[in-house]
Write a structure and sequence with these properties.
The protein has about 250 residues and is of the alpha+beta class. Helix 2 (about 85-100) packs parallel to helix 5. It is built from 8 helices and 7 strands; from the N terminus they run αβββαβααβαββααα. The chain has a single domain (about 15-245), classed as L-fuculose-1-phosphate Aldolase, CATH 3.40.225. The protein has helices spanning about 15-30, 85-100, 110-120, 130-135, 150-160, 185-205, 215-225, 230-245, and strands spanning about 40-45, 50-55, 70, 105-110, 140, 170, 175-180. The relative contact order is 0.16. It is globular and about 55 Å long. The chain has a 7-stranded mixed sheet, sandwiched between helices. The chain is about 40% helix and about 15% strand.
Length: about 250
């Protein structure tokens, strides 16, 4: 498979490209990117084992739909071709999509507050507000950071997310990986996880006792938000509307 972006006329999953490109550009707007590192991916054809991912060393704010690479998660030879993806992006995302079947979209970032959480000896996100309760029993902590996310590390991370209920991996000493059943779903979770981490870290900094929500109520809140229909897509559609009004090139 040649690593060339497809044109709109030839691409039968153009809207998926557009959505993923919007996620890149808005993540940069939120300052949740990291230079030209980090990576997002999205399955486009599960039967053919293909997924989209960002090109190597391109800033999130510059990524357009036509820039995205389409790869096969079993075809490692792409790493030897011109315009090859970042090797860690390949290692993490090919493994996630291959071994974690509920991961249709996978977003990996080193956002500030989530990475602070991942840097603590105890990386649990206590349910101290509604946003953090949203993730109660829905994230897992990777306690075994093993270096850059090449294929063996990617497979290990995928195994940690084998439970379909788990949608966030707190990658100890690293960052986070958020998965979802669409770009809108994964982006919404990524956004709110960072917000929850910010509130939690700032609350810890006060040095005062935390008002921790009970397990029963936290689980209730998480279930309610899981079943709150349309909130993620409405959030993401509004983001694309803003980008459109501003004349962004994300959809080109």
């Amino acid at each position: 498979m040649a690593l060339t972006a497809l044109s709109q006329k030839k691409d039968d999953h153009w809207q998926k490209r557009v959505d993923l490109a919007a996620a890149f550009q808005w993540t940069a707007r939120l300052n949740m990117h990291e230079a030209v590192a980090n990576h997002f991916s999205l399955i486009v054809n599960e039967k053919e084992k293909t997924f989209l991912i960002n090109p190597n060393q391109k800033h999130f704010s510059n990524i357009k739909a036509s820039d995205l690479l389409e790869l096969n998660w079993d075809n490692r030879s792409v790493l030897n071709q011109p315009n090859a993806p970042d090797a860690t992006a390949w290692g993490l995302h090919s493994s996630i999509h291959k071994y974690c079947k509920h991961a249709i979209c996978a977003l990996h970032i080193h956002s500030t507050y989530a990475t602070v959480l991942a840097s603590l000896a105890d990386s649990k996100l206590l349910p101290v507000d509604q946003n953090s309760a949203m993730f109660f029993n829905r994230y897992v902590i990777d306690e075994g950071y093993g270096g850059l996310a090449f294929e063996s590390e990617g497979k290990r991370c995928a195994n940690l997310m084998s439970d379909p209920k788990v949608r966030v991996l707190v990658m100890g000493n690293h960052g986070i990986l958020v998965i979802g059943n669409s770009v809108a779903d994964a982006f919404d979770r990524m956004y709110y996880f960072e917000r929850a981490c910010k509130t939690y870290i700032l609350a810890l900094q006060t040095g005062k006792p935390l008002r921790v929500i009970s397990d029963a109520i936290a689980e209730k809140v998480a279930c309610q938000i899981d079943n709150f229909s349309g909130d993620d897509s409405n959030h993401f559609n509004e983001i694309k509307l803003i980008l459109d009004k501003e004349g962004s090139d994300y959809a080109s």
